[in-house]
Design brief:
The chain has 557 residues and is α+β, with helices and mostly antiparallel strands. It is built from nine helices and 30 strands.
């Protein structure tokens, strides 16, 4: 068994362990410096990772502000009970819209025929026990208002009303079959087949159900015989049971600002750009006034979120760059923050100086003494009330056209700004479209389809998306708002391979990997050095002990 006792200095009186540790501590200074550098590097990596996370959050917030938030709108109705129509709006033209609903869209269906309140068909006493056809099988065809025909076959295991219901629902036809228990009469269980969509469709609103069993109808539900041109891929259906007059589907009929419109659905999003109307009840004699306005509350909240995300970035940097912090004296980190601040507070590239607002500061965004931002909500909402489009253009990529032939739809990080001339020379409705676009004296030809033109990669028009509605010439004024500029900057800074931040983090990680190898080698050398020193001091103790023993012997003579 080894002993933990130490007999150091028995001969010399020296604390040899302490001497060895002192020597190793002195010789280990390079290793300690490398360990300290490694720890500092780890803190620096954490600080840059936090910066990257804060930048991404800021970019996401700006994207929301420039996208959905600026498009947010409120709709106020003159009908407090929303009896006939409700509406939502996003990006619509601000103003008033008068709605009158004459008739709502209904779904076609087939339901039992009643005589004296009792069903004469499509009804049974027991939906499981009552058989609905004779023989070993029965085939049926079903057609919804979309005109699609499906066939189905029942066998002895599904010879009941529930079996027919389930087979219809599994057929793929655009209908929904249900069995309703009226709770009264000899045959309380009734089959109802309803089209899944509203409007007259392609069948003038009629739903059809036919018994197409070879040789004629075999069912006891009153479903009359019919024929199809194919049992597997039917395209025509004749005969059978069809929707009664009261069950034939109807289209919605309504008017917007005095213009009568017809739609097959009660949720209408293509009548007025940016507005979705939900028709609830027909027979309206008056008019419902819907006032569409900018949703200043939502936009203000989104702007506050941008400022909060920016302040989180600045506050984290300020803390990390203080004396003793992970980024103290780090010029690279300071430069990155400066780039973001400059991009956010600058005049948007390409924005005409005649615009109502030309900077974030002009709409109430203030720079505080500590570098953070604050929002004057009164000034911001006043700007929104005065010219919401101009406020949006300060932050979002925007484009205005001098001709109705071309309208701006979207742009990318590489899209040019300023004035772009255009001449749409060929346009076919829902077909090919082409034109010439001029940037700084150089012409670029764009070709597209269905009225959509997209700028080619590698050109100043890279990422530009336009809609064309005819031939014509004019000019586009393209502006990269400060919000878009910051998003583009963040994308470049944080790109997985080429971004400056990932490269910095990787570089510091590489430094730490190299330091780890050097530290390990240094620690191995120190461990060997300790063994050598311990051996040397042990030898010294032995020699001194021998000399002391010899001296004692001489003294005793």
């Amino acid at each position: 068994m080894s002993s933990s006792l130490s007999f150091q200095g028995l001969s010399t009186g020296l604390q040899t362990d302490a001497i060895v540790n002192a020597i190793l501590q002195q010789e280990g200074q390079p290793v300690q410096r490398m360990l300290a550098q490694q720890a500092k590097n780890t803190q620096r990596i954490g600080a840059f990772q936090a910066m990257q996370s804060n930048l991404t959050a800021l970019s996401s917030s700006l994207s929301t502000l420039s996208g959905t938030s600026f498009a947010a709108q409120t709709v106020t109705s003159s009908d407090s009970t929303n009896t006939y129509v409700t509406a939502t709006a996003t990006g619509a033209t601000v103003g008033n819209y008068g709605l009158n609903v004459s008739q709502i869209a209904t779904a076609g269906r087939i339901s039992p025929t009643l005589s004296g309140g009792a069903p004469t068909n499509l009804a049974v006493a027991d939906p499981l026990a009552t058989t609905i056809f004779t023989g070993t099988s029965a085939s049926f065809a079903i057609q919804g208002t979309d005109g699609v025909i499906k066939t189905l076959t029942l066998d002895s295991g599904s010879n009941n009303l529930y079996g027919l219901r389930d087979a219809i629902n599994a057929s793929g036809a655009s209908v929904q079959a249900s069995v309703v228990n009226t709770g009264s009469g000899a045959n309380p269980y009734q089959l109802v087949v309803t089209a899944t969509g509203t409007g007259t469709g392609t069948t003038n609103g009629v739903v059809s159900l036919a018994d197409v069993t070879s040789g004629g109808a075999v069912n006891t539900l009153g479903i009359t015989a019919g024929t199809v041109d194919s049992m597997t891929t039917p395209t025509t259906l004749t005969g059978g049971l069809q929707s009664a007059t009261a069950d034939v589907a109807k289209n919605a009929i309504f008017s917007v600002n005095g213009i009568q419109l017809t739609r097959q659905t009660n949720v209408v999003s293509d009548a007025v750009s940016g507005i979705t109307f939900t028709l609830k009840q027909g027979g309206q004699t008056g008019t419902t006034n819907l006032a569409v306005a900018t949703d200043t509350s939502t936009i203000t909240s989104a702007m506050q979120d941008v400022i909060s995300k920016y302040n989180a970035l600045v506050t984290a940097f300020t803390s990390a760059s203080a004396s003793g912090g992970a980024l103290y004296g780090d010029s690279v980190a300071r430069s990155l923050i400066s780039q973001v601040r400059t991009a956010l507070t600058a005049v948007p590239s390409g924005l005409p100086l005649t615009s109502t607002y030309t900077s974030a500061g002009g709409v109430g965004v203030k720079v505080n003494q500590d570098g953070t931002l604050s929002l004057d909500t009164t000034a911001f909402q006043a700007a929104l009330a005065k010219d919401p489009t101009a406020v949006k253009n300060v932050f979002a990529f925007s484009g205005t056209s001098s001709s109705a032939a071309v309208q701006f739809y979207g742009a990318g990080a590489n899209t040019t700004t300023g004035t772009v001339g255009f001449n749409i020379t060929s346009y076919v409705p829902n077909g090919a479209v082409s034109g010439t676009f001029t940037v700084n004296g150089t012409n670029y030809t764009l070709n597209g389809n269905a009225g959509i033109l997209v700028g080619a990669a590698g050109t100043p028009l890279d990422g530009l998306i336009l809609t064309a509605s005819g031939v014509g010439s004019g000019s586009l004024t393209l502006s990269r708002g400060v919000g878009q500029a910051v998003q583009d900057l963040v994308t470049n800074l944080t790109a997985a391979v080429s971004g400056q931040l990932p490269q910095i983090i990787q570089s510091v990680n590489d430094q730490n990997s190299s330091l780890a190898q050097q530290i390990s080698a240094g620690q191995d050398r120190l461990a060997q050095r300790k063994k050598v020193l311990q051996a040397q001091f042990a030898q010294m103790e032995a020699v001194v002990g021998q000399l002391q023993s010899a001296g004692a012997s001489l003294t005793g003579m």
